[in-house]
Each structure stands twice: as structure tokens, then as C-alpha cells.
Specification:
There is one protein chain. The chain has a single domain, classed as Rossmann fold (3-Layer(aba) Sandwich). Helices cover about 40% and strands about 20% of the residues. It has 8 helices and 6 strands, in the order βααββαβαααββαα. Helix 4 runs antiparallel to helix 5. The two termini are about 30 Å apart.
């Protein structure tokens, strides 16, 4: 597979990836689409990490990959480089990374809301196994997102991304009512921005908790 332009949207569950993708598709995320040069959603291939193996196209002009960066932990991989969906990076001519962030307390609240909505649905027998797996994943994510390990995981992700000649790396902070976007270098160097890694939050960006 040959990808002309790859945009990797990465972050933990409930950090806002799906919500932003829906806004990109509907043209309601100009702040992001203008910077990333994502135009005309009908010409863009949007794929979840777990679906990527189903992609049979030999050439893709623009691919937006929705990547849950807790996958390596859940699947027992020692490093991001061992996670199969990320192999697509090697086939891309141009790469842009977008890492999503939300304060741990907000992530935890969103995950609890997602779990509650999932429990309210009575799954059909054919989907029962998948529902159980999703509940287990949410429980693991809740525990991980409130631990110091989350910060270290972000560091490992940034280190992994630095191994590629990417066109850019952006941080999207969805802790507030509207997402805020920063270049990674600015976000890391400004204590006023990255200090929020341990700060409590109260205002919530409207993230889709139904997945």
C-alpha cells in the first residue's frame, strides 16, 4: 500500500479523536483542517486502527488514521513499533502527527460516561463478547489514565514519532469547551500548557462517549 499523505490522530480513549473526525467529515473543524490541509472529506480515507488490515487499495491520496495509543498496553506489545497498524507510516510519502490530550480527571469522567452508556444497552448475543471486551478495555483505560504512567506513555509516543521525518506534530487539548491546538515543540516547552498533565479540570469538551 502506498499512501501519499498520512495524518495520524492519536491519543487515549475519550480524548476527542472520534469527535474531531466527525467534525472534519462535516466541515466543522476549520481550525484543524486548515492547518493540516485536510480538504474535501469525500476524497479522504478515514480508518480506525483495528480496521486498517481490511484496506485493499494499493494507493491512497489522503489517509486519516484514528489510533488509540493505549493499544500496545492492551495487546501486550513492548513498543509502538510492534503495533501492526502503525506500519502504515512506513508507506507514507508525507506524515503529520496529531496527538490528543485531555486532563486525567476529564478523561476519567468521559470513560465512566462511556461505560455507563454501554451498560445501558442490552447487546444482542452475537455482540455480547465484543461488549465484554469493550468494558474490559474501558476499565483498563480508566485505571491507566489516572496513573503517572499516562505521562510516561505520552513521552514514549513522542519519542516514537520523532523517529519519522514528519511534516509536523500537533497537540490538540480537548479539556475545555473548544479544543485548543499547539505545535508539539511549543506545548512541551511551555509549562503553562503541559502543566495541565496533572491539573484537575471541570469544563468538558463535548466528546462522543457512545463508541
Amino acid at each position: 500500500m502506498n499512501v501519499e499523505r498520512l495524518v495520524v490522530l492519536a491519543g487515549p480513549p475519550c480524548s476527542g479523536k472520534t469527535t474531531i473526525i466527525e467534525r472534519l467529515k462535516s466541515g466543522d473543524a476549520a481550525f484543524l483542517s486548515d492547518i493540516l490541509k485536510i480538504k474535501g472529506s469525500e476524497k479522504i480515507c478515514f480508518m480506525d486502527d483495528w480496521q486498517l488490515h481490511k484496506l485493499n487499495d494499493s494507493k491512497i491520496d489522503q489517509l486519516v488514521l484514528h489510533y488509540d495509543f493505549l493499544r500496545p498496553i492492551r495487546n501486550g506489545f513492548e513498543a509502538f513499533s510492534s503495533d501492526p497498524p502503525l506500519n502504515v507510516i512506513d508507506s507514507a510519502s508525507e506524515i503529520v502527527f496529531v496527538t490528543f490530550y485531555a486532563k486525567p480527571s476529564i478523561l476519567s469522567a468521559r470513560l465512566k460516561k462511556r461505560k455507563f452508556k454501554l451498560l445501558l444497552r442490552f447487546p444482542r448475543p452475537i455482540r455480547l463478547y465484543r461488549t465484554i471486551i469493550r468494558l474490559k478495555n474501558i476499565k483498563l483505560s480508566e485505571k491507566f489514565c489516572l496513573s503517572p504512567e499516562l505521562n510516561l506513555h505520552y513521552d514514549k509516543w513522542f519519542e516514537f514519532c520523532r523517529g519519522f521525518d514528519a511534516r509536523g506534530h500537533w497537540i490538540v487539548d480537548t479539556s475545555g469547551e473548544e479544543p485548543q491546538m499547539f505545535e508539539l515543540s511549543d506545548w512541551i516547552s511551555d509549562p503553562g500548557l503541559n502543566a495541565c498533565l496533572s491539573a484537575p479540570g471541570s469544563v468538558d469538551f463535548k466528546v462522543d462517549t457512545n463508541r
